[in-house]
Amino acid sequence: MITKFMAPEIIFGDHAIHQIGESFLRLGAQRILVVSDPGVKAAGWTEQAVNNLKETGLAHTLYEKVTTNPGTDQVINGAALYREEKCDAVLGVGGGSALDVAKAVAIIVSNGGAIEDYEGVDRIHSPLPPTIMVPTTAGSGSEVSQFSIIIDPKRKKKMTIVSKSLVPDIAIVDPFVLMTKDHLLTAATGLDAISHAIEAYVSVAATPLTDVHALNALKLAAANLRPSTASHTNLEAKRSMAMASMQAGLAFSNAILGAVHAMSHAIGGRYELPHGEINSILLPHVMEFNLIASPSRFAEIGDILGAAGSTENEMEKGRFGIRALRSLAGDIGAPKTLKEVGLNNPDFHKMAETALEDACMVTNPRDVTLQDVEALFLKAYE
Amino acid sequence: MITKFMAPEIIFGDHAIHQIGESFLRLGAQRILVVSDPGVKAAGWTEQAVNNLKETGLAHTLYEKVTTNPGTDQVINGAALYREEKCDAVLGVGGGSALDVAKAVAIIVSNGGAIEDYEGVDRIHSPLPPTIMVPTTAGSGSEVSQFSIIIDPKRKKKMTIVSKSLVPDIAIVDPFVLMTKDHLLTAATGLDAISHAIEAYVSVAATPLTDVHALNALKLAAANLRPSTASHTNLEAKRSMAMASMQAGLAFSNAILGAVHAMSHAIGGRYELPHGEINSILLPHVMEFNLIASPSRFAEIGDILGAAGSTENEMEKGRFGIRALRSLAGDIGAPKTLKEVGLNNPDFHKMAETALEDACMVTNPRDVTLQDVEALFLKAYE
Predict the structure, then answer these.
(1) Which segments of the protein form a coiled coil according to its record (chains A, B) (predicted)?
(2) How far is the C-alpha of B42 from the C-alpha of B127, rounded, in Å?
(3) Which of A79, A311, B104, B341 would you label with A221, given CA atoms 20 to 30 Å apart?
(4) With a CB-CB cutoff of 8 Å, which residues 160-189 of chain A face chain B?
């Protein structure tokens, strides 16, 4: 089997945000479209990034209207601004939503058309302008991934866009920036990173290289998500979670994901609910379903999640792991059911149809039918 | 601390060599300078690469005169050929020597001057033409690294050239290609990969990302170098050694190396001796010297090398590790002393002076004096 692995150049460390300007200079950029969101702006990080661009003599234009679960309109508006202002590079500063919009804008300004044209795998044919991504959450992994997820409101669908071209030129990961996240966002995004690591590790497209990153991400997150959620100022825990999120990103970018994300995208396209929380609710149910597809890998996951050494049986270890994950989610106050987060009268049949078509479902380790997905949604519901 | 990490796009797997042409097409190249060596040509791999270029409609010119420990003349000749034939991209097919010459040629044709101008760290300022590297040994890691090592015969010196620009665009790693290596080359290059993993792991510039790759490389090599040396046709062992070598390359490319390589470069600049064997002779002596700088890391190395669980003392584990490494080298028939490989009347004082100036010495975990280096050379001598 021939496998491929791609990663951006990575700049990692406290205050790395101050290297944005010189990094763009190195890429030959002169006028940067900065894509960000109001929360990140309020925390002051957008301004820090912009000031760094100014200090290095670079011009910029700010598009700061990204929302959670961003839709096609944000891509259209961001791309229009890029063209009006004659930008030549894109900076994303924010959570997964801002980075995904930044990437989608980069697609449109170089490849034309509408973002819907690029849904699916490998649809991008012209090179993108230089891109730098600065994550302000430890969760999405978008700063290193070949993914962008954008909602098509007409079809009520989260579109998964996958392409090598979407791996940014440079990922600048600054753990210091994570100190302004509240505990709910820390918990939800951290559980998202865990779901990336686990789905990538059991993916049918996993490779020795993605395994290394998935397992290390899971180890770091298992040890650090509780303390990181507990304290704004525990910088050591933030550093570990930033590294965990990035390595989980390297893993899933190259091994793709599975049913958790396929189902989560199906929910997120129809309902305005936070991606990380949805994933963390779905994850244990999907793990139970997938367990027989890869008992040895789920046993390893169990070992890492702290499933005590009381058994040598792989299936048992796998089940301990799922239990340990539920404990972790409970300890940091994550919701347990879809109902609890506000899903009302969901049409599980339609959502299951959408989930089955998602690009992430292809790499799920266990064969999945429409009935399976509906049953999993029901289990996660209440 | 802010750390940086760079990796090329990686295509890994049996028969990946057949993806060279389409990869160059993707990079927009049309006429490829193929840099290779007579041994690789004799084994048929150069022709396979060239045929693949032809099949994809790409023109090529062949420079196949690379030798072990290549000098500046090969860079000059390769660059002249590139210009004469109006090439626009460079392919390296071979061991570390061929890949290092290919990279050095890529520097000269895009940045001008002589290769001596680029000795040291970060001296390359213009972008290189597209480069793809296909290793035919599991050892150098040059296919993923930001290093090129070229001998300056005037100064009798191995020049270490380090630059982000030297990370190839694409590394194509085909374990199948390793089946034509003889057991001596398999052993020597495998021990070189081990020295990369160990030096990167204890380097003062090690980071969590380089650690992951260094440890995984060491695990793979510890388990697979014996069987890979024992059998031409053990493809499973070749796959693991190819992955070990590449991951060791990712580790040392970003964490740099230490005294083993600084000293080995000092020998290689003056004497025509194989790099891998020299490293494997020096490695246990340097480990003994470095042990007090990082007992915990050497203890981990000891655990991986199979240092039995009889002790919990870190220094003891470290010493067990060094012993286990000597056993491994002995089992695969590696030489034990510099005298044995043909070093005659060496001027250790001059060599120690050269070693102290090498870029690799900067990241050695223990402070090193001229006297230390001379003493280490003497220990390794007989």
Answers:
(1) none
(2) 33
(3) A311
(4) 164
Using the Cβ of A126 and the Cβ atoms of chain B, whether some distance falls under 8 Å is answered with: no
Min Cα distance A294 → chain B (Å) is 21
What are the structure tokens assigned to A154, written together? 């007409």
Residues 6+ apart with CB under 8 A from A310: none
What ranges in chain A are assigned the alpha helix state H? Answer: 20-26, 38-43, 45-55, 72-84, 96-111, 183-202, 208-230, 235-255, 259-270, 275-290, 295-304, 314-331, 348-357, 370-381
Statement to judge: residues A169 and A187 lie in one domain: no
A94 falls within a domain: yes
- Tell whether A81 is covered by a domain: yes
Residues spanned by the domain of A248: 181-381
Please check whether residues A146 and A255 belong to one and the same domain: no
Q: Does A243 touch chain B (CB under 8 A)?
A: yes
Instruction: Read off the pLDDT of residues B51-60 as tens digits, 9 standing for 90 and up.
Output: 999 999 999 9
Give pLDDT tens digits for B306-347.
866 667 899 999 999 999 999 999 999 999 999 999 898 899
Residues B86 and B138 in one domain: yes
How many CB pairs below 8 Å do chains A and B form together? Answer: 68
Please check whether residues B24 and B108 belong to one and the same domain: yes
Name the B residues in 211-230 with CB < 8 Å from any A CB.
212-213, 216
Question: How confident is the model at residue A312, as a pLDDT?
Answer: 80
Residues A66 and A85 in one domain: yes
A236 near B CB under 8 A: no
Q: Does B125 touch chain A (CB under 8 A)?
A: no
Which CATH number characterizes residue A31's domain?
A: 3.40.50.1970
What token pair was written down for B318?
């470290």
Interchain proximity B14–A2, CB inside 8 Å: yes
Q: Which of A172, A69, A250, A180 is nearest to B7 (CA)?
A: A250
ipTM associated with this complex: 0.89
Cross-chain CB nearest to A4 (options B5, B10, B14): B10
**Nearest Cβ partner for A243 among B11, B208, B243:** B208
Judge whether B3 lies within some domain.
no
Which chain A residue has its CA at the smallest distance from B2's CA?
Answer: A13
Q: Are residue A206 and residue A340 in the same domain, yes or no?
A: yes
Q: Which residues, other chains included, contact B269 with Cβ-Cβ below 8 Å and sequence gap of 6+? A: B151, B152, B155, B156, B157, B158, B354
Residue of A12, A20, A52, A167 to mutate when probing chain B, most B C-beta within 10 A: A12
> Burial of B18 by CB count in 10 Å (0-12 exposed, 13-18 middle, 19+ buried)?
middle
> How far is residue B128's CA from residue B111's CA, in Å, rounded to a whole number?
8
Band (pLDDT 50/70/90 cuts) for residue A309 is low
CA separation for the pair A6, A24 (Å, rounded): 20
